[in-house]
């Protein structure tokens, strides 16, 4: 069964509650909330507040990090969120990326993220972890708290780490079939190293959506939201980019300015058609349906989709009404 999960960030409680209530009404499978220190409202408090308007859909972070949140803090926040939501919480964590750079800090090393995941899982299952004063444990909900932990990763080493320790992957590499197949191989490699079944690790492919009766206009509007996601993918390597597209991607990367507002970090004319197709599902309803069916042909069944902020609820509704009924 094809499932669609929404991704959001917001600066007002009212807009978040309206979005999560809409998501449940429109039969989305879940809502994931960004964690951007000082930029958007705290995701854990928003997730707790979601209990007032939604009782069915999954809710989670996409993604928090262990740069600003110690693993023991995250374990407590996850246990609390899971209790408040009646077992519907998913903990999505990443290395930190752009938010950490804003504060002059470095993203988490993958080895540290793996260890943090093991520590969080130990605490949630009633175990202990070492601290400067000796072993510590979670003193509430211990032993009966099961919280899935998903990695928001896209590079080979991150995907292999996810295969070793995570329950799921939020793949921010876009909707390119070859890239998704490569990601699966890296997840499987990590899983096999740890003696795990690769098929037990839930894969969500993530990207921007924009649907409209005017397909060209939809793609034009969607390209304004791509910069951060594409930059995150290509900051270390262009190996996943076809040779003929690399010069354009290099120009895009050279122009990226993290100090500017999210949708102004690259001149829109540098966002190529290749980047639009790779990182968005955008166009007419029929075009979007065809793209999702193409992805389903290689076994992709879970999608974490982000409507553009400037038309978030409008696009979420159109997607649910014009695209989802043909796929779910």
Sequence-ordered SSE layout with sheet pairings:
Elements: E1 3-8, H1 13-25, E2 30-33, H2 43-50, E3 58-61, E4 64-65, H3 71-84, E5 89-94, H4 98-102, H5 110-124, E6 128-131, E7 134-137, E8 149-153, H6 156-165, E9 168-171, H7 177-193, E10 202-211, H8 215-222, H9 227-234, H10 246-255, H11 273-279, E11 280-283, H12 285-296, E12 302-306, H13 312-322
Parallel strand pairs: 1-2, 1-12, 2-3, 3-5, 4-5, 5-8, 8-9, 9-10, 10-11, 10-12
Antiparallel strand pairs: 6-7
Helix pairs in contact: 3-5, 5-6, 6-7
How does this structure look, described?
The chain is of the alpha/beta class and 328 residues long. It has one domain: TIM Barrel (Alpha-Beta Barrel). It has 13 helices and 12 strands. The longest helix has 17 residues.
Q: What can be said about this structure in brief?
A:
The protein has 328 residues and is an alpha/beta fold. The protein has helices at residues 13-25, 43-50, 71-84, 98-102, 110-124, 156-165, 177-193, 215-222, 227-234, 246-255, 273-279, 285-296, 312-322, and strands at residues 3-8, 30-33, 58-61, 64-65, 89-94, 128-131, 134-137, 149-153, 168-171, 202-211, 280-283, 302-306.
